[in-house]
Amino acid sequence: MENISRREFFNKSAFGITAAGCVAAAASRASAYPLGMPIGFQSWSVQQLLQKDFDGTLKQMAGYGFQAMELCSPPSSSA
Fold first, then answer.
1. How many of the other CB atoms lie within 10 Å of CB of 41?
2. Which phi and psi (to 5°) does residue 11 adopt?
3. How far is CA 20 from CA 10, 16, 41, 48, in A?
4. Which residues sit opposite 70 in a β-bridge?
5. Beta bridge partners of 42
6. DSSP 33-69
7. What's the average pLDDT block by block, 10 residues per block, for the chain (79 residues)?
8. What local confidence, expressed as pLDDT, does residue 76 receive?
9. Which 3 state secondary structure label does DSSP give 75?
């Protein structure tokens, strides 16, 4: 292990604390909506839940933070 002087220790510590502060400040300005669009999900991923309880499933997904749902058509029975 390399010995370092007290001055070098404080300089490296100050640099690390400053870097951590800059990262924390940048993270606090990060947006969950970088494109200005609401976060959504496709109905296909919860299709069975939607068939059982449509309104309850939408409330549950809204509780997770989703604000939009993209509808998808069910598979066709006739080919």
1. 14
2. -65, -45
3. 15, 6, 34, 45
4. 42
5. 70
6. -TTS---EEEGGGGHHHHHH-HHHHHHHHHHTT--EE
7. 84 84 70 76 89 93 92 65
8. 60
9. coil
CB-CB neighbours of 61 under 10 Å: 20
Q: How far apart are alpha carbons 55 and 66 in whole angstroms?
A: 14
- Is the distance from CB of 45 to CB of 71 less than 8 angstroms? no
Half-sphere CA count of 51, side-chain side, radius 13 A: 6
Using DSSP bridges, classify how beta strands 68-70 and 40-42 pair: parallel, antiparallel or unpaired: parallel
Residue for token digits 């010995």?
Answer: 3
Question: Cα torsion at 42, 48, 52, 55 (round to 10°)?
Answer: -10
The domain limits of the chain are 1-30, 40-70
What's the token pair of residue 4?
């370092």
Q: Give the residue among 64, 71, 78, 67 at the shortest CA–CA distance from 50.
A: 71
